[in-house]
TrEMBL record:
UniProt GO cellular component terms: cytosol
One of the protein's GO biological processes: guanine metabolic process
InterPro entries: Amidohydro-rel, Metal-dep_hydrolase_composite, Metal_Hydrolase, Metallo-dep_hydrolases
Pfam families the record matches: Amidohydro_1
Keywords: Hydrolase, Metal-binding, Zinc
Protein's recorded name: Guanine deaminase
Molecular function per GO: guanine deaminase activity; zinc ion binding
Lineage, highest ranks first: Eukaryota, Fungi, Dikarya, Basidiomycota, Agaricomycotina
Amino acid sequence: MTQLFVGTFIDTPSAGELRIRSDHLLAISPEGYISHLAPLHSDSSQLLLSSLPTSTIPTEIPPHSFFLPSFTDLHLHAPQYLFNGTGLDLPLLEWLERYAYKAEERIDGSRELAERVYERLVRRLLDNGTGCVSFFGSIGVESNLILAKKMQELGLRGFIGKLSMDQSPRPTYGESSASSSLQSIAQFLDSLESYLSTYPSHERLVQPIITPRFIPVCSDELLVGLQKLAKQRDVRIQSHMCEGRDQMDMVMKRGKRDHEYWDELGFLGPKTLQAHVTYLDEEMIPLVKDRQVTMAHCPLSNAYLSEKQFPLREAIDNSLSVGLGTDIAGGYSPSIQTQMRQAVIISRMREGARCESMNCSFAESAHKEGAGNHLKVDWKESLYLATRGGKKGMGLGGCFEVGMEFDAQLIELANKDTPTGTGALDLFDLTSDTKLDDDSWTENLERWWCVGDERNRKGMWVQGRKVA
């Protein structure tokens, strides 16, 4: 049946644009899509209400609560949640060998462990407001199907990438040849399709995504085969690109730079997601923009494992497709809210280094001749990346617009019993009778962005279904 909500809906249709719609009526179709959104007292809303059965009563959102689109995590290694929060003092390739490959091997070797880790991970993500994820899995077919079933049953939307890697540096963890790797990914695609066929199309929350781990562990034969398979099956592609100096140096031994290699093989396109791309520069920007590649910015992980930080300001200014990723376990927090904050912090550090190179202050840089554009990113832009930016890059919604899937989180700033603030929020100008205008909503939303946590989240909906 149709669901109705009345109250405040906040989203970010574009980078830097905060849209606040108070006293609005939102309708959700039985299939989970937004079918109506307009002011409550508008003619269209009143007409809708009069056309529905009298038993269809709108749910009122409390005065100091609001709906926000759920977060999207564009890059997360699911089996690495097993050791999350350890080993981040190591360089990337050593870290992979000592921790990542071992964890993935353990997950593939134990169905019970995969069940336990993946159920905990999916629940943790929903608790943190994440409604859509692009997962890197492991090389095993069964463990990736376990992840798919946990997502589907618990209500997490996302993409699952069964890893492909036929040149693994670890003797006990890898695929023996390009042909066996291609057979394995085909088996996974067929098995996932068979499992999802039991659900109506609008209830199928999981999609496969072709996932060569990165160029150094994949032969040319495998990469060519995966690209061909992605086209044949119309499946999205994800990998790592230009993440760190050591990884890029390994690719250069094949005679081309990382992004050149991907492009020559035909991997860069509108259905391609590349994680990190921290070495994005003026030469690479036109290529990424022309190919319509989506990039997963993983600010916390990059601070630990990359020598360079992603140029987020330049990416936004050039209208590139960007979202945020946790990169568990390279980043230790499953919270996209943490990644939003970290993205802003890193941008300000980049701007500080730029100002210092010109021997000027933040204030002076705006007026200094030849200073160029600043590198700061603000909280509203990071909120766009966490919601609309990431979802749009994956061909989904991420806003409150008619026709988009209703993936949303209900955030409470305060309630009638605690008008001074919920959770970590301390609000001094709010009473139980206060009616917030747009300026007040913006101010309090920024406070939530800075210090809010899971205590402010009072519900999660994915495809119109309440899941947490």
